[in-house]
Write a structure and sequence with these properties.
Layout: H1 3-24, H2 32-38, H3 43-54, H4 58-76, H5 81-87, H6 93-104, H7 108-114, H8 119-132, E1 139-143, E2 146-154, H9 157-174, E3 184-188, E4 201-207, E5 218-223, E6 226-234, H10 240-254, E7 265-268, E8 281-287
Antiparallel strand pairs: 1-6, 2-4, 2-5, 3-4, 3-7, 6-8, 7-8
Length: about 290
């Protein structure tokens, strides 16, 4: 590997570490010096490197992710606004309300009320979901923790996901990590109805059964053990949003479901390279209490 490729790999590995740290510590104070230490950068160079990677300043990225995470909690949880504010790193409700209104144009309480479904919307969501969900009621299952390698991509899910999968599969092939029962997992961190398409974060993941060190753009993470509601989506990936709309917008509300504080994920049961779009099968795992 030449010097240029070694340098890129070195930066990719440290940037991946910083992004993972931010995503896992939104409730903490995140200052530039601390994050620079996480990535082993000098503060001066760190700010410029992160801006180039994120296409926005590091401060803007942190504020945006905090507020978009809060928007999801307002819509899909029963947490009080004050508790949501603390969870996403705001020390008091007043500063949170001000920042939220600046981002979305309305207060957190107004946002929660505005996003509640009318009867007509609820019916429409159910009709769309019936086209692609195998069943409108999920299987409930306790699963064990899964160790993952992953590559993260930024951008429209329909475009960026392919780039991430190419990277993680090339790595797995080189390290001989593929097996007969290798699980292919996708983690979509953002709601495309809230986050701009060019800022969406997607992790293409493979479940691994042995210890693997992070390398370049390939990071490591874990899906936590616990209870999940599992829906099966049948059909093209670009219809997944309809299924998510039903799960989070209707099923959860109708059944008073409470989410655990961990990410959901998708498990791909067949390959898009060998399967017609209408025959694709995707399990959607929703972490529940």
């Amino acid at each position: 590997m030449n010097v240029k490729n070694n340098t890129k790999k070195f930066h990719d590995e440290r940037i991946t570490k910083v992004i993972k740290y931010i995503n896992n510590h939104l409730d903490k104070e995140l200052d530039l010096n601390e994050l620079a230490r996480v990535g082993n950068y000098s503060t001066y160079h760190f700010h410029r490197i992160m801006r180039a990677y994120l296409t926005e300043s590091l401060g803007a990225y942190i504020v945006r992710v905090r507020l978009e995470t809060a928007a999801g909690l307002l819509q899909f949880s029963s947490m009080q606004v004050a508790d949501i504010a603390l969870k996403v790193g705001y020390g008091n409700t007043s500063s949170f309300n001000k920042a939220f209104k600046k981002r979305f144009g309305i207060s957190p309480n107004e946002y929660r009320q505005d996003r509640s479904l009318s009867k007509a919307e609820s019916t429409r969501i159910k009709i769309y979901a019936m086209e692609n969900l195998k069943s409108l009621e999920p299987k409930i299952k306790e699963i064990k923790a899964k160790n993952l390698i992953y590559a993260q991509a930024l951008g429209n899910y329909n475009k960026s996901a392919g780039e991430a999968w190419e990277k993680v599969c090339d790595f797995a092939k080189k390290k001989r990590l593929f097996g007969f029962k290798t699980e292919f997992i996708g983690i979509s961190h953002d709601d495309p109805n809230v986050t701009d398409a060019d800022k969406l974060r997607y992790d293409a993941c493979l479940v691994v059964s042995k210890d693997v060190e992070p390398e370049g753009e390939i990071g490591i993470q874990q899906i936590k053990e616990g209870k999940y509601a599992i829906f099966t989506h049948k059909g093209p990936y670009d219809k997944l949003n309809d299924s998510y709309g039903y799960i989070y917008g209707k099923w959860m509300m109708d059944n008073n479901i409470q989410l655990r504080d961990t990410c959901g994920f998708e498990k791909y049961l067949n390959s898009p390279d060998k399967t017609k779009p209408e025959k694709l099968r995707t399990e959607i795992y929703v972490p529940i209490l």
